[in-house]
Design a protein that fits this description.
Arc Repressor Mutant, subunit A, flat, mainly alpha, 186 residues, 8 helices, three-stranded antiparallel β-sheet
């Protein structure tokens, strides 16, 4: 590992930038490809990708607040609301009203903030219990080109990408480096 870092210090910035760009594009294209394949499979169960994800969270994690689902999926409460409306119409989830605990005793509010909670119905549990095992077999099929160790490495690497400190490198993004020629036609 130390040798890789030491070798990396001698690589010109232009090559590092090209490599990062090519890697990012490949990662995005692969993720888009896989999402499209999996979403098409879910259509057979009359589910969208986002509906399936919501059902999975409620199935595996238990009841959730609507705001929390928005945070989990990095989308607005309103966007999640559209998905939830369809799931509710199908009878797969139900909403319940609740209140969060007050943040402090000094708060002027007598009660905490109002929230909408969501949970699976019996029909929703039956739906996801039917779809989930079939869906996981399809995922396994698409990832069959990787062995177990490679899958574990990919999970770890994806986590590292998501946890990367973008702020740390923002200076690089905004500063022009005249020595870095980004005309990549070779």
């Amino acid at each position: 590992m130390k040798r890789d870092r030491a070798a990396n210090l001698h690589i010109p910035e232009q090559i590092k930038t090209k490599r990062a760009y090519r890697t990012g594009l490949e990662l995005i294209e692969t993720a888009d490809w896989l999402r499209e394949k999996l979403a098409r499979q879910l259509e057979n169960f009359d589910l969208t990708w986002m509906q399936f994800r919501v059902l999975c969270v409620l199935y595996h994690e238990g009841p959730q607040y609507q705001q929390e689902l928005g945070r989990i999926f990095s989308t607005s409460k309103q966007s999640v609301g559209h998905v939830l409306k369809r799931l509710e119409e199908e009878g797969w989830i139900e909403r319940w009203a609740g209140r969060l605990e007050k943040k402090s005793e000094n708060s002027k509010a007598k009660q905490g903030r109002r929230v909408t909670g969501l949970r699976l119905t019996a029909e929703g549990e039956k739906k996801i219990a039917d779809v989930f095992p079939k869906h996981t077999k399809i995922v396994k099929c698409y990832l069959r080109g990787l062995d177990g160790r490679e899958m574990e490495t990919l999970v770890r690497l994806c986590g590292k990408v998501r946890e990367g400190d973008a702020v740390k490198f923002l200076k690089e993004f905004w500063m022009d480096d005249p020595s870095e020629n980004l005309d990549w036609k070779e």
